[in-house]
Every structure is written in structure tokens, then in C-alpha cells.
Amino acid sequence: MKKFGYILAVTISFLAFNSCSNLYRQEAQTSMQASNIPANSYGSYLAGRIAHYRQDFDAAAEYYMKTAQKDHSNPALLNKTYLMLASQGRISEAAKFAKIAQNNGEKNEFITVILAADSFKQNDYKSSLKEISKSTSPLYKKLISPFINAWSYAGLNQYDKAVAALSKIQNEPGMETLYHFHTGMINDYFDKPEIARKHYEKIVTDKNLDLSVRTLEVICNFYIRNGEKEKASAISGKFAKTVPPVVILQNLDKQIKNANPASTEALISSPQAGLSEAFFNISAIVKHNTEVLDLAHIFVRMAIYENPHNDLARILLANILEMREMYKDAISIYDEIKSTSTAYYIAQYKKAEDLRNLDDYKGSELLLKSLILDYPNDYQSLLDLGDTLRIQEKYKEALKYYNQVIDQYKGIAGGMWQVYYALGITYERLGNWNKAEEMLNKALELNPNNLLVLNYLGYSWLQQNKHQEKAFEYIVSAYNQAPYNSSIIDSLGWAFYRLGMYDYAVTFLEKATDSEPSNAVINDHLGDAYWQSGRKNEARFQWNHALTLKDDSGEINKKILTDKVKNGMTNNIPLNYDKQKIDTIISQINTDGLSVKN
Asked: Domain check: are 443 and 506 in the same one?
């Protein structure tokens, strides 16, 4: 929902700054008043901090809660306890400690959201209204309270007040989609289909408003239940061909076609389901600002707490966990999604991606092959399976799936450059450089100036002593687009090395090792540059270090590297090149404050 995201994201950033809700920043900036922790609780407190640091949030929540149960007077500890519990979806437990903090005089306004959400879940809508009314910030009142108030009034069967509460966001910049979506849902909940239809159709027909997968699912559900199945099918069919992720929409389209209007139940059948959508909407917007990712994490947990059937909220939660590189936790969330859900495919696809992130390539391969049996024409699964096979050096099998993508999607622009790029790498690994070069040039035709393709082509040419000036130009172009990409920095440093410009080479290769110190190839390259610069002790240090590192590139020959450590290396013979052309290209390099000389 990009079109209304900016104002809310900025607002939530401000709220987060004032709510002390950044779980990581707190850990780094405060000692939690450790000296005030009772001696008999210090062990559990320390265990909580260690678990927190390791991103084992569930264990951290347990240890913090155990400590806080014995010490209700430490505000920092209480704050950490209820936020950590909330981040794990344990909202009712979080509410107990939030209430203690509130009674102790804590002014953190996010407490009111947690307490309101918990009261709401228990159908105690009056308490929910009372809690959220304690918010004094104008921003809370404008952009958070209206949703809680509206659905609380819906729970109390007070239609006029529910609609009036939402009207407060009607004219807020960037909030038009949310206003129509929630007003439509409330009217649907109160069995006022004509008014609901008016608001839903505003979203569907107005090109200035963004239509998310979840919004489309709710609106189509409304049309089916109100005897307009063909309209629902037409809308979903239209977006299934154009809006990613395509497979989710194709599954939705299939479910709509097979739906029986008489037995189709409302997705928003309770106030809790409605408030869940609001929390989900807020989280989806806020997650794009990494500074307040913790808030997105807690809001989506509250969305699932209010409506455990909201599988797209689970997808969002897993995505947030992936942003934190908590891949095992993300997989556990994906595993909660049943095969009957429209979100099942995307959950399994993302699980395969996370298995790769955990270096479980075989597990990822098997899962992707299983998905392709059910979805043989899915572009992304075929491409990812090819990548997974290529990583395992199963190059010939990878070609099969890449070519399957090419055969099925001829004429489709956009992401097809990725397939040709992958094919280029695969053919290169198979030793067929002519075919690899053809594929890489095709990728560049489809996506001119793509830094990945430019870097790969340029580096490969240099390794083959070909097209020196063009190779250098390509690498410099890639570097200027991404001067902090370690692989591209390494390519530029190595290009200078091959040209015999060792001072330049050392400067950029040192920058590359600073960026990625555990990369064997970069350390080997820097050792070579040091040696040619006369810095032989430093060269041997780098080569020795490279020997200790894992190499996934296939470039490192440990026998040669060991020999260099023992005997050094011969003088490098620079490539022949057109000095005027190379000097012109060098003058175009973004040195970004680096001190370079030659």
C-alpha cells in the first residue's frame, strides 16, 4: 500500500522514538539499571540479555519475565519485558507487565495500545476505548486511535460512533485507501452492503489508490457473499495476471471460481478480525522503515493475536523475521500456514528461500521440486530451483530449469534479464564461455547498465585477457553504482592489478577486505597486490588468512596459494591496454574520499 505509506511511516517513526520501543537499541544503549536487579534474580536477567543479543526472543521474554516478577520497580526492565512478550505474540502476558508499568507512572504511550489490544481480544470494548483514550499524542489520536475506537464501537454495536471514529482519518494525507477499506468493512459487518460496496468500489476503480492482496481478498469475499461472484472473479482474474505475487492471486482466483456463495463465510466476521486488519495495515507500512522494525514486529503480532486466521499477517511476520536474519523463526511461522490457505504456496516458496539462507540447499531443492509439481508454470520457483542447483554445482540440471523459464516466458520483459544472467554464470562454470558471453550480453540488452552483469562480464574478460578497456569500463560503471559492494570493489581492485597499477589495486582491495574480511578470494587478491608492491610480509599474512577461509567461488586453488605462502610469486605481467582510454575511465571513478595514487 505504497500510496498512503509515507505519512504513516513518518508518523510511526516519531511515535517509536517517543515510545522506547526499539528492542535492539535499548539493549545497546541501556544497562537496564542492572545494579537495581535483586541478587537472586540477576542470573535470569543476565540469561535474558544473552538470549536477547542472540535474537532468541522467546527465551529472552521468559528470562525477563522471570526477573520482572520479582522486581516491579525497575521501569527499564518492565519496558523490556512487555515489549519482548508482545514481539512474541504473548499479548495477554505483555499486558500484565504493561499495566504494572502504567500504574508505576510510566508515560510510554505504546502501553495504551497493548492494553487496548488485550482488552479488545477479551471482548471488553469499553476498557479498550478507555485505555486508548489515555493517549495524549496528537499523532496517536489521528492515526492509531481511530481504528481501535471504530472497531471497539463496532463491538459495542454502535454503528454511528464506529463510522464517525473512522471519519477522522478521511482527510489525512495518504490515508484514503485505509479509510475506504475499513469503512467498507464496518458497513459490511453491520450488514449495510450498499454502503460497503460504495467504499470497496472506490478502491477497486480508483487508480490512485493502492490495492493489496489482502484488500482484494476481503473485497472479493464481500462480492461473493452478496451474489456478485462473477464480479469478484473478474476483479481477481484481472489482478492475478499483473500484480505480484502472482501465485497467491491465482490461488485466490481459483478459490473464487469454485466458491459457493451460500456457504461462503465473511472474512471480517468479528470486531477482532477488523482490528486485525488495521494492525496488519500499520505493520505493512512501518516495516519499510528499518529504524522502527520493532514496531512493525509488534503490530503484526497483535494482528495475529486478534485474528489467528489472518495468514497474510503470518507471511508479513515471517518477512520481518527474515529482515532480521532469523530464518529458523521465519520457517516456523510458514509451517503454521495450512495447505488450504491461499497463502500456502508463497509460505512454502519463502521457506525454500530461507532454507537456502541456512545453507540447506538440498532441503530447498526438494521443496522447490515439490512446489513445481503443483505449480509447473511458476516463473520464480523455476528460477530459484535453477539457482539452488547451480549453488550445488549441478550445472546441467540447473540449465534445464533456466531454459524452461525461457521457453515459457518468451516475450516477457522485466525480470527475464535475471534468467539470462544465471544462464551466463552456469555456462561459464561448465566451461562454455562463448555461450556464457552470449547469455550475459542478452541480459545486458534487457537491462542495460545492470551492475551485476557489468561486473561479471568485466571480471570474466580480465581473467581471459580479453577486451581490457571495455572490461575496465564495465567494472568502473558497476562500481560507481555500488561503491560499497565488496565483490564489485574487489573486481575494480583486481582490474587495477591486472593493469599493473598496484597502488590503486591495494587501495581498492583493502577497501574490499574491510567490507568483507572473510572472503577468501578478496584476501588472496590483496596478498597478490601487496607482493607486487613490495609488501611481502603483509602478502603472506593475507594468503595465510585466505587459506583459513571457506571459498564458495571455486577460484581458490589451495595448492597454488600454499606455494605462494612458502615461495612467494613471480612478477605480474600487466595486460596491454590503451593508456589514454584507461586514464579517461579512471578519471570517472567515484573515489568516495579514498586517497588513491599510482
From this structure: no
Beta carbons within 10 angstroms of residue 381's beta carbon: 25
Between CA 309 and CA 299, with CA 193 as vertex, the angle to 5 degrees is 30
Model pTM score:
0.83
- Taking alpha carbons only, the member of 307, 248, 247 closest to residue 281 is 307
Distance between CA atoms of 127 and 152, rounded to whole angstroms? 9
Specify whether the backbone of 557 is left (phi greater than 0), alpha (psi in -120 to 50) or beta.
beta
395: domain range? 359-448
Choosing from 425, 448, 471, the residue where a domain stops is 448
How does pLDDT run across 176-193, given as a tens digit for each residue?
999 999 999 999 999 999
pLDDT in tens, 420-446: 999 999 999 999 999 999 999 999 999
Give me the DSSP letters along 42-106: HHHHHHHHHHHHTT-HHHHHHHHHHHHHH-SS-HHHHHHHHHHHHHTT-HHHHHHHHHHHHHTT-
* Percentage of residues in the chain having pLDDT higher than 70: 89
Question: How does pLDDT run across 83-100, given as a tens digit for each residue?
Answer: 999 999 999 999 999 999
User: Dihedral (C-alpha) 391, 392, 397, 402: value to the nearest 10 degrees?
Assistant: -10
Same domain, 418 and 477: no
Do residues 429 and 380 share a domain?
Answer: yes
Q: What is the CATH number of the domain that holds 444?
A: 1.25.40.10
